[in-house]
Write a structure and sequence with these properties.
- The structure is a single chain.
- With about 150 residues, the chain is an alpha+beta fold.
- About 30% of the residues lie in helices and about 25% in strands.
- The chain has a five-stranded mixed sheet, covered by helices on one side. The protein has a two-stranded antiparallel sheet with strand order 3-4.
- Helix 2 runs parallel beside helix 3.
């Protein structure tokens, strides 16, 4: 079985630099064998590409692509904390926040963008418990934010 880094290469994905915090927090916190990532927003090369609420300015498919970017940023933060992604035993929990128009109820489908990437990269170890929550607004007016908890060696 290939390593997560090999799977990323097979998928044609290059890990980005860790997104610097926009407030008073750190990208990851480790306690024992668990690593918690801070909420990751869809920033690519220092820029937010999509803003607005899902179900209004942003459609669900685009929001799912943005959730995938969030998960990629979380993986980058996780790798920076543990060195090699092969040290990840499993992704334990994912929480996705979706800035939602009042009548939008497709948060689970949006957060699938993040969940699917985690399974592509980590295989069965990427299957996780999850919450997908609709919220009124997110930092930088992004449509989605994702955080995760990983168990590591």
């Amino acid at each position: 079985m290939s390593t997560p880094e090999e799977r990323l290469r097979e998928l044609g994905i290059e890990l980005p630099d860790v997104v610097p915090p926009v407030a008073s927090y750190v990208p990851t916190a480790r306690t024992g064998s668990l690593v918690y990532t801070s909420g990751q927003v869809p920033v690519v090369k220092g820029e937010v590409g999509v803003t607005g609420k899902v179900g209004a300015e942003v459609d669900a498919d685009e929001a799912a692509r943005q959730a995938r970017i969030c998960a990629l940023n979380a993986i980058a933060a996780l790798k920076a904390e543990v060195g090699e992604l092969s040290r990840v035993r499993r992704i334990v929990k994912v929480v996705g926040f979706v800035a939602s128009a009042p009548d939008f109820s497709g948060q689970p489908q949006v957060v699938n963008g993040a969940s699917d990437l985690l399974v592509e990269v980590f295989g069965d170890a990427g299957r996780h418990a999850r919450s997908a929550v609709g919220v009124a607004a997110l930092p930088l007016n992004v449509p989605v934010e994702v955080e995760l908890i990983a168990e590591v060696d």
